[in-house]
Structures are given as C-alpha cells and as structure tokens.
Amino acid sequence: MADERVAGGGAPSNNKSDTSVLAIAYYNWGVELEHMRRFDQAIKAFTKGHEVACSELDASHPMIQAMYKALVDVEDHVAVKKGYAVTPRSAIKTPRTAR
Q1: Per residue, what are the HEC states of 48-98?
Q2: What is the model's pLDDT at position 82?
Q3: Which of 10, 28, 43, 60 is such that its CA lies 20 to 30 A from the CA of 91?
Q4: Does residue 26 surpass a pLDDT of 80?
C-alpha cells in the first residue's frame, strides 16, 4: 500500500472538501501574515484563497464572502498606510488640524 501512495504521487483529490480545506489554509495564512504586518503577502494569500474558494464553491457561500471581506480590509489598510486613501479620522477637522 505504501508503494501505491508513492506511485500515485500523493496527488490530492479534487473533491470540494479538499478545496475547502485549501481555501481555509490560504485564509489562515493570510490572517497570520496580517498579524505579522506583512500586508502585501497577506493580500496575495487572501487573493489565492478567494480564487480557490470561488472555483469550487457557490457564489453565496459564507467562506467566499469572509475571504473577500478580509481581502478588502487588508487592501484598505495598505491604501491608508501608503496615503492613497483618506481615513475617517483624518477627514475630521479639529482645532489642531484647522490651522
């Protein structure tokens, strides 16, 4: 039996549960990268997870929606950090910023 696994190359099956696990793994990796403040790599991980999930799951599946939200949140964070987007806080005029 061990020879059969080696001869088969250990290729993963193409069923939806394996795809779901792969999508979840990309999502979790993205979360870890975000926690380590590696935002560009997190965007790539979330994007790949979203692509994998979209290829096999229904468009209304909660996993797809969660991955898309995480991707958008990280992209927004990067945009704010790089000065491409205005944060709600910076749009508020205070006595200090009104000068």
Answers
A1: HHHHHHHHHCCCCCHHHHHHHHHHHHHHHHHHHHCCCCCCHHHHCCCCCCC
A2: 86
A3: 43
A4: yes
H or E element at residue 47: helix 39-56
Is residue 39 within 8 Å of 78, Cβ to Cβ? yes
Residue 87 makes CB contacts below 8 A (sequence gap 6+) with: 80
3 pLDDT higher than 80: no
CA distance 3 to 26: 30
pLDDT score for 56: 85
C-alpha to C-alpha distances, 78 to 8, 11, 26, 40, nearest whole angstrom: 43, 36, 19, 8
45's CB contacts (< 8 A; 6+ apart) are 26, 27, 29, 30, 33
pLDDT of 50 over the 90 cut: yes
SS3 20: helix
What is the largest distance, in Å, between two alpha-carbon atoms of the chain? 77
